[in-house]
Amino acid sequence: MKRTLPVALLLLAAPSARAQSAPPAPIQDNSFLIEEAYNQESGVVQHISAVSLTRGGRSWEYGFTQEWPLFGRRHQASFTLPFQNAGGASGGGVGVGDVALHYRYQLAGAAGGPLAVAPRLSVLLPTGDAARGRGAGGAAVQVNLPVSLTLSAGVVAHTNAGATLTPAARDADGNEARTTGVNLGQSLVWLVHPKANLLLEAAWTREEEVTGPGERAAASSLLLSPGVRFAIDFPSGLQVVPGVAVPIGIGPSRGERGVFLYLSLEHPYSRAGR
Question: Which residues have a Cβ under 8 Å from the Cβ of 151 and sit 6 or more positions away?
Fold first, then answer.
């Protein structure tokens, strides 16, 4: 079974906590399918919930991600806890998927500026049940390179390129093989208002599945996803960002439809670095 992570898995960063007297600042992160290259600021933690529903409700995924800065904005640690209903022929039911542990390094953009780069290294733990379609059956290593570029005062672009290696993946019958996956993504964010943005994201993946002892087969997916997000700031420093998107399958994924629901809660936990 191919390993899936709620991408918006997978894998986001956070805006800063702002004083009440500061002017409104744009929503800097909180994309859905594409990872942005902005690490957490010191003293700020982010809690992200993401739900992906397929047309007809035959399967769904829920992911909870929590992000923490490490010794400032340059380093960031996070984890993703997924729950899945595999549905389909596997009839796997509801359960925990493969938990992911992430580390990101702010290579460029820690001090601001139009360009941000933050490579990520993740370890995916085989906590899901591969026999029920909820995991890859083995531990994996994943790398991703997100690049964010401010094109103008109202438009920001985000680019992703990454790969996943599972040395000993397993299928539902227990067959084992090494599998790989690659991902590419691009998004444009239109800052209609500092607190209300429109997004257009495109995400392509090519993943291998185990088909027999030492055997594997590859399948590709291509999604185009329009969405919207907005922010609500509270005097306490809490920022709530809800969002919704409608992923549409094109090319090899033609005919697929879904709904993506997003909710971020971000707040200061310390005055350090503020």
Answer: 157
